[in-house]
Amino acid sequence: MKALWGAYAALLTAVFLVSVAAGWTTLGLQFDNDVYDFLFRASNPPAGAPSSVLLGIDEETLRQTRGGVTAIRGILAKGAGRLAEAKPAAVVVDIILADKHDDEADAALAAALAKLPNLVLSTDITRQGWEDPIPVLRATAAAIGHVHPIPDPYDNVVRKISLERIAGGQRRFALALEAYRLASGGAITESPSTLEVGPVSIHAPRETWRPLWIRYRPPDSPVPHVGFAELARDPAAAAKLAGKVVFIGVTAQSATQDRHMTPYSFGQTMAGVEINANAYETLAGGRFIQPVRPSVELASCFVLAAAAGAIFALTSGWAAWLLAGLVLIFVHAAPAIAWSQGWILPYAPLLSAAWLSIVAAASFQHFVVRRNLVRSEAEKDRYQRAIHFVAHEMKTPLTAIQGSSELMGRYKLTEEKRAEMARMINSESKRLGSLIRTFLDVERLSEGQIEMKREPFEAREVVETSMARAAPLAERKGIELRAAGIEPALLRGDRELLEYAVYNLVNNAIKYSPSDTAVTVSAAPEAGRYRISVADQGIGMDEKELKNIFRKFYRTKRAEATGEAGTGIGLSIVDQIVMLHGGRMDVASEPGKGSRFTIALPLSEK
Ligand code: ADP
Question: From residue 143, how far is each of 117, 164, 176, 333 by CA, in Å?
Answer without folding.
Answer: 11, 14, 11, 44
